[in-house]
Amino acid sequence: MRGRMEPEPNPEVLLQEARESIDAAQSYRRELGQRLQGLQAARRQIKDSASQTRDVLRQHFNDLKGTLRKLLDERLVSLLQEVDTIEQETIKPLDDCQKLIEHGVSTAEDLVREGEIAIVGGVGEKNEKLWSFTKKASHIQLDSLPEVPLLVDVPCLSAQLDDSILTIVKDQIFNHGTVASRPPVQIEELIEKPGGIIVRWCKVDDDFTAQDYRLQFRKSTSNHFEDVYVGSETEFIVLHIDPNVDYQFRVCARGDGRQEWSPWSVPQIGHSTLVPHEWTAGFEGYSLSSRRNIALRNDSQATGVLYSSAPTYFCGQTLTFRVETVGQPDKRDSIGVCVEKQNGYDSLQRDQAVCIGTNGAVFVNGKEMTNQLPAVTSGSTVTFDMEAVTLVTTANNDAGNFKLRVTISSNNREVVFDWLLDQAYVSLYFGCSFFYPGWKVLVF
């Protein structure tokens, strides 16, 4: 009995399945291609780093050879000079003694010749010559001989050369330098900030105990890295970053109790697309840095709120103020965020603004909160974090209240509250006001 025949598949279904298979194959091919590129990048990293390490080793040991040769030559010259000095100082008394002896020999030879002549002469003449010779000889001390030093009392120079230095140097050389397959620290994360990038790194070698870290960066178009941080922290914000420009970052570490630095981490490329925060230029009473991210309250008598040049703060970001220097505090001082610029006010302690005073008081729409933060001091960092919570509409839907959850942090303490606004705002201004000179604030 013939089995039941299966129904013919629908051509449209087959076509759809074929298309899906083609799409899957193309996606699979793309994934494989990306993995091949990853393998090629890994291969290049190994090859390039190996070549660079060879160059570094060759250069280092060539430098060592040159330095050792120079040090040995200098030591040889020093020892030869010491031999020359000893020789000159100890030969001089011998030279003086030799001159004295040679003078005595010459005198004795002259006396011998005169005596022989006196003996050979006639009787009458002989007596006169003998008398003259005897008189002359009596004035010469023929029994006085100069003392010549014994050989045991005369310096006998020699060089004491101990071959143990070769053993010491050999042991040091055989243990000098190491080759690491990977650095003990690596960059973990790059977080863009307005006008800056937060760099975070971590230790990847459990056997390595880090005492200090060293962070460097450079523009991708530059050949020179520069130090931006040395210390024990594992996070640092690099400021003065131009937007939409690639920068390279690398970090190394110094082991506990050691002087040399570890190999550099694999360089990471980062950039910031966020517009840098800037204070408004030309506002009387404040002078700005070249990048306009630092404001200094000067000696002018003018008062008012110094605002940002544009509403560059967006919800979801962290706005940071760092107080570089302080002046005399005033209860009207303020650092904070507002909906819009409103000239005519001397403080952000007003409606449509949230701020903190230099005494630590927190104000929301001009009203002081019960909770208070520590007073602002030199080096204090004040941060504002905001996120949209909900939009509550009124009965007629004509207007609504936009609620922002605000967190203000300062000196390891924070306050959290809801800020009600009459409408949703995409971006906000920031500002500050100080009534006495000396206050300097960096914003990022």
UniProtKB/TrEMBL annotation:
PROSITE patterns: FN3 (PS50853). GO terms for biological process: negative regulation of cell growth; negative regulation of G1/S transition of mitotic cell cycle; positive regulation of receptor signaling pathway via JAK-STAT; positive regulation of transcription by RNA polymerase II. One of its GO terms (cellular component) is cytosol. It is found in: Cytoplasm. SUPFAM superfamilies: Fibronectin type III (SSF49265). Residues 183-276 form the Fibronectin type-III domain. Gene3D superfamilies: Immunoglobulins. May play a role in the negative regulation of cell cycle progression. This is Cytokine receptor-like factor 3. The gene is CRLF3.
